[in-house]
Structures are given as C-alpha cells and as structure tokens.
Amino acid sequence: MRFKKCALFSTMVFAATVSAAAPERIGQHGRWLTDGQGRVVLLRGGNLLLPGESQAGSAPNARTPQRLAEHGFNGVRLALFFNRLMPRPGVIDKAYLDSIAQAVADYRAAGVYVLLDFHQDEYGPAVGVRGFPEWATFSGGHEPKKLPFPAGYFSDAAIQTAFDNFWVNHPVPGTDKGVQDFYLQALATVAARFRDEPAVFGIDVMNEPFPGSRCNQPDPAKAHCPELEQQLLAPFYQRAGKAIAAVAPNIIVFVEPFMLQGALGIPIATPAPGAPLRGLSYHQYGTLAEIRQRGNANALANAERTQSAILNTEWGFTNDPAEWNAQAKEFDDLLIPWLAWARGPFESLIDPALPAAGNDNREAILRALARPYPRATAGTPQRLSFDGASGTLRYSYTVVAPDGRDRATRLTEIVMPKVQFPSGYTVKVEAKQARVISQPNASVLQLEADLNAREITVIAQRKGKLAELPPVAPSADPYAFLHQQSRSKPADNKGPLSTRSLLGDLLGDPRAHAILQREIPELIHSPQIGMGSQMTLRALQAFAPDLLTDATLDRIDRALAPTRQ
C-alpha cells in the first residue's frame, strides 16, 4: 500500500496492547544499542526488584511483565544484591540465582529486555542501607550513624571507610582473597548463568559507585575528581569487564560514573570496562533543567568518547508530572534510552490493582512515561519529539545504520501506547520516503523504507482528546522504598509540604518555591542544588548550617503551614 499525497489516515480501533515479540540478542555499536538486524534499539521501562523484595502489597507479580508490555515498555533494570547472592565468602545462594532466572524468564515471555543491576545504597546494611554483605564490610571500627538516605554518603565515616576498603581490595579473613575479588566472582557467576539468555542484554557492574573518604561532598567544587576515576574506577572496571566477557562475551558490560557526577552536572570521565561490548549506565535527577541537561550532555560525550552504548538507568523520583514530562523530553532530544526510577515501586505505576505506595499521581506519571518511541529503527535515529498535549509524534531517521550498512528494506517499529492514543491516530510520512505496513491504529506502527529513501520523517497525530486527570496529589514519604530495609529514620511527611519534604518537592510547588526564594535565595541558586533536590531541607542543614539555621527552618515551616490543609 502506497501513500497518496504523502499521508495515510487511520480509521480502525486502536489495538488493545503493544504486541510483544520474543527478545533477540541486543548488541552495541558506538553509542547505540542494536539488534540482530543491525537496527538501533531504544529501551523504555523502569527499575524493579524481584518478587518479595519490594514494598508489601506492591511487589512485582505474575502480571508485572505483561503489564509493562501492554503499556509499551520494553526494558527493566532488575536489582540484585551482593549480600543475597553470596551470603558467605565464595558461596553462591543457588536459590536466589534461580529466583533471578525465573524473573528473567517471565520478562522474556512478555518481550521485555533485562539489565541485571548489581545494586547498592550506602554500601550495605551493616553500615548503610543495602547491597554488600556484612562479611565484605570493613568500616575501620566506625560506628554507623544511620542518617536519612543519602546523607550517610557525605557524613558517615563507616560508609566512606567501607568504600575505601573495597577499592583497595581489603583481605577477607579466613580466605586468600579480597572483597573486590569475591565481588568479581559474583559478577562472573551471574554472567555465566545468563550468557545464553537473549533477554539479558547487559550487566550493570555497580549501582552508583562512591569514592569513599575522598571527593565525597555534594558540592561541584569538591566532587570533581578525575584522578579517582583513573585510580579507583579504571582498574576495577577493567577487571570486571574481563571477568564478564570471559564467560559471557555477548553480554554488554555497563559501568557507571561516581554517584555525584550526574546529580551535580560535573564532567564525566568514566573509564570503559575491559570488554568488547560496553555501555555507560548513568543517572540524572534534579529539578533544575540546566543541571540535568549538563549531566545528560556530559554522559553522552563520555559514551561517544569511549564508544559505549549510552543508557540512562535512573531518573525521575518525583510525584510532579510536569517534571516527568520535562525530563522525558530532554531524553527525547538526545535520543537517549532510559529506565526510570519512580517515587514508589515502578510496578504500581503500571498496575492499578496494586497500592500506589508513594506514586501519588500515578495516572499522570504513567501518561508522562508511556510515550511513543521507536523501539527498533532500520537506520540511524536523527530527531524525536512528542507533544503530549496535542498528541503529536515526530520522528526522523536516516536509512543507513550506525555500522554503515543500508537498512532501507528493513522494518522500523514505533510503539504507540494506548494511554496516549486511546482512540487511535493518523499517520503521515513526508516525501513518500516510506510506507506503513502495520494495520491502522496498531499498537506498533511499522514502516518500511522505499529503496530510494535517504531520510524519513513520520508524523503521527492523536485522534480525539485524552480524559482529564485528577488534581495533583501531595507528596508521600520520599524514601518509603528504603525504610523497610534500613535502620535509618524515615522522613516526617505527615503534611504534604514542610522542611522535612524533599527540596525538589518544595521547589516544584509555586508557593513553596516563593517562600524558599525569599528565605534562602543563596541555596536556591547554588550549584549544589542538583544533589540537594533529593534530600529533605532538614537533612541539608548539615551541609549548609549557616544558611539553614534552626530559626530559619522554623520560619519556613510556619510559612509553609497554610499549604498543609
């Protein structure tokens, strides 16, 4: 079927779900993820835990993989924990490994790709929150302070010393190995288990590595430490990449910058892993667009320099739909694939049968996340934009793939989520460069390039209007997802807004923003705000005591009180 006057107008009812294809192996070429046909793959999805490891009542279940696929998501970052995998030095918990394999099989059946994430938060439960086992925690005799997350990174010597000892491969008593050696053994064990599993496209070597007692303050002037990237990250990532590639050469090895780099927008010089298939996993939070955009640009420059596939594996962590939409647009602008981190469990965003559990505006958040996107491009992506208000998607790509091969006769697939197009959509392809071969209003729009095509631009337009959403709800406990696994004191969020709310939530509320602008303008305009947005205003007092005096905080609380009706 050819176009007449460059347009095809759809008339049929929208398909119920996004069709799920069995995942084929994902590879990597430069900054791009690619499939077996050489098409560029964009991933969209979220961070999830294994069943039983999430908040009570909101744990991933048998419905979760299919719910993801129904909303058009094609990827998850599945958190694993070193202390669960290796409860004793060198001893692998096979039951835990089997539970990971079962989850992967469920995601594969739904057509969802999996990034296995070796996750830690403030090192581990012996000193911080979760990750490393007690036998691998050497805190130098410092008593853990158990501060509200993430303040322990910056103020707890026990956490900092534990990281120091990881980087120097501290000997594990009763063995002939160091803690880093055992960590590499765990990486290799997981890689070997999934080397023939096409749904597992990569392993994230360590979530948010931290430099330890050096370069550890949430201040751009004190958190830029390229020498530590070479001294600490480079040798570890070389060893990790080699360990994984030796047993699973088809798995992409993803490495991360130090945790403060993305949050503060400082330069990123993350060393590549010692593996032929390599990726850069980075995080981007914050309410200030300037810092976010600088962080995204720094990450993309590093990925291009090291010839690593770029993938944002954490972003969001807000209940403000406007922030979700703004950040999603920033990723579209740079064609960066992503796996989001919700305020509450990601599964509660996609399954209305589950409690919201912290995702107070989940209908609006889901609408911001479930955006149309090219999941497979027969060529190289050029420009992507989506206007959620009008429901207009515009996507351009060339027909030559990143490896230089012409993909003009191959298929491009664009996910069109029902949440954005409940009554269907119309399609127009400029200059007759391609033809639509999918059914009208299909959940996946399929395009085949003409043989003489060079650059293809497709425009899809929503039919009708979206239903009105309920008013934005107040924020809930910002770190509820951690409290059940740590001894840290939960934030006091009995009222929607107070000095115990996240700074990011305060900045997102016009009235609260005006109060902070009046009371603490120096902090609001500080370059430290990137990290501060993820901390409560009370917790920030330790880092800005001259600005955030008790009297100032009390005055802000009194001014905020009328907003807590």
Largest sheet: 8 strands, parallel
- What value does the average pLDDT take? 89
In the CATH hierarchy, the third-tier topology of the largest domain is known as: TIM Barrel
| Strand content bin | 15-25%
Total helical segments: 18
Q: What is the number of E strands?
A: 20
Instruction: Please give the order of strands in the largest beta sheet.
Output: 11-10-9-8-7-6-5-12
Domain module count: 3
The fourth-level CATH homologous superfamily of the largest domain is: Glycosidases
Helix-and-strand structural type = alpha/beta
**Helix fraction?**
25-40%
Ranges where pLDDT stays below 50 over 5 or more residues in a row are 1-17, 483-494
Shape: globular
Distance between the termini: 59 Å
Tell me the radius of gyration. 23 Å
CATH architecture designation of the largest domain: Alpha-Beta Barrel
Tell me the name of the CATH class of the largest domain: Alpha Beta
Q: What does it look like?
A:
The protein has 565 residues and is an alpha/beta fold. It has 3 domains: 1-41 and 374-471, Immunoglobulin-like, CATH 2.60.40; 42-361, Glycosidases (TIM Barrel, Alpha-Beta Barrel); 491-563. 30% of the residues lie in helices and 18% in strands. The protein has 18 helices and 20 strands. The chain has helices at residues 64-70, 82-85, 94-109, 151-155, 157-167, 179-193, 226-247, 259-264, 289-306, 321-334, 346-350, 362-369, 480-483, 503-508, 510-519, 521-524, 529-532, 550-560; strands at 7-8, 27-29, 32-34, 40-41, 44-48, 75-80, 113-118, 200-204, 252-255, 278-284, 309-315, 338-340, 373-377, 380-387, 392-398, 411-415, 425-429, 434-436, 444-449, 455-462. The strands form 3 sheets. An 8-stranded parallel beta sheet has the order 11-10-9-8-7-6-5-12. Strands 2-3-4-13-16-19-18 form a 7-stranded antiparallel beta sheet, with no helix packed on it. Strand 9, helix 8 and strand 10 form a beta-alpha-beta unit. Helix 10 runs parallel beside helix 12.
